[in-house]
Write a structure and sequence with these properties.
By secondary structure, the chain is mainly alpha-helical. The protein folds into two domains: about 150 residues, no CATH class; about 210 residues, hpI Integrase, Chain A, CATH 1.10.443. The protein has 16 helices and six strands. The strands form three sheets. The chain has a two-stranded antiparallel sheet. Strands 3-4 form a two-stranded antiparallel sheet. It has a two-stranded antiparallel ribbon with strand order 5-6.
């Protein structure tokens, strides 16, 4: 199990007890279906928001989410659920943070249609389980009626071309890949307006540059890079030993270009003062833990956003670095099956979206046809 999954599994264990007993039953059911801890935590976050909304709206007399009885769910009407959907659509106009256990700046932003659909889909899964799959000691369903079954979700399915167009404006193409990495190492210092920021950047720029270059040199997921141990690197073969989604063992490659940045960082890794038993490749320090320890996924996401904003592509995210690699790979190596193997995709359809990102390539193909 990866470090991220171990952390999520622990968090799941620590938080599920604050939910009603029937939610715990649902989580156990999903565990038996081999849902990942990250997926199950996502369910809990969606349930928490809905339950808090119910209590705020007076739809339950419970004062603690854990105490909301099944009867309150059984009594919900279709109009009530539709009111919840309307609230999700307009919640950024109100104090949405009041329903969040850890509100962030994004609490003031509008929910996307996809986020709203996900939240309702989570509820649909719970209500379906309670009304159709689970049963009490008498063989009866926990819920006698499933109000969520009456709610239709209108999800606009994007074509591969539409998905590709959405990706295109948020990724690095051709020389931008090298320019971005060079900017992280050489250019960002000019954007540090305090001495403290300059010192922090100089302390971490080799790590940050190597981390970003590795993602761009092999299309790795951020969780895979964060979970890397020193023993997972096969330098002489430019390979990494990874546990992919679905607990699949894999050994994808990285480029010589990325290898140079990685090798330079590894020579300086000890400056983070890790404990002798610390095997994580990419390290961080904090006020509470001055010894080098494994960097967290959230920290990587934040540092990529920081550099991307200063670089002039604010929509570039750590996952878009993976998209950047995939698009560049197909541009130079038109073999989607090779890319599928490198990215660890289980379906070729997922890989094929990158074939449409570069519209110039598609346009040339159309011209060659006639």
């Amino acid at each position: 199990m990866s470090v991220t999954k171990q952390r999520d599994a622990l968090q799941l264990l620590q938080t599920v007890g604050s939910y009603p007993w029937y939610v715990e039953k649902f989580i156990e059911h999903k565990k038996s279906k081999k849902n990942s801890p990250s997926t199950l935590l996502g369910y809990l976050r969606d349930f928490s928001f809905f339950f808090r909304w119910m209590m705020t709206e007076g739809l339950s007399t419970a004062t603690d989410m854990k105490d909301i009885p099944l009867s309150d769910l059984n009594d919900l009407k279709k109009e009530t659920v539709e009111s919840y959907i309307l609230y999700l659509q307009e919640s950024h106009l109100y104090e949405r943070s009041a329903l969040l256990s850890n509100p962030t700046k994004s609490a003031k932003k509008e929910y996307s249609d996809r986020t709203i659909s996900r939240k309702i889909s989570s509820l649909k899964s719970l209500f379906h389980y309670l009304s159709a799959l689970a049963e009490d000691e008498n063989g009866e369903s926990y819920l006698t009626r499933n109000v969520l079954a009456k709610i239709e979700l209108e999800i606009t399915e994007l074509t591969p071309l539409a998905r590709a167009h959405a990706i295109r404006a948020k990724i690095l193409i051709d020389d931008e890949i090298y320019q971005f990495v060079d900017f992280v190492y050489n250019g960002y210092l000019a954007h540090c307006d305090t001495e403290k920021k300059k010192q922090y950047h100089m302390q971490n720029r080799d790590r940050d540059t190597a981390l970003i270059a590795m993602i761009l040199s092999g299309g790795f997921r951020v969780s895979e890079i964060v979970s890397l141990d020193l023993s997972d690197i096969i330098m002489e073969k430019n390979q990494l030993k990874l546990i992919r989604k679905g607990k699949k063992e894999d050994a994808p490659f990285f480029s010589d270009w990325g290898k140079e940045y990685l090798a330079k960082y590894l020579q300086l890794r000890d400056k983070y003062n890790p404990e002798p038993q610390e095997d994580a490749v990419f390290l961080a320090v904090s006020p509470t833990n001055p010894n080098g320890h494994r960097i967290e996924v959230r920290s990587v996401q934040k540092l990529v956003k920081k550099y991307a904003k200063a670089f002039g592509i604010p929509d570039l995210s750590v996952h878009k670095l993976r998209h950047s690699f995939a698009t560049q790979f197909l541009r130079l190596n038109p073999d989607p099956h090779q890319l599928q193997a490198q990215l660890g995709h289980s379906k070729i359809e997922t890989t094929m979206q990158y074939a449409h990102v570069l519209e110039d390539a598609l346009g040339k193909a159309v011209n060659r046809t006639t």
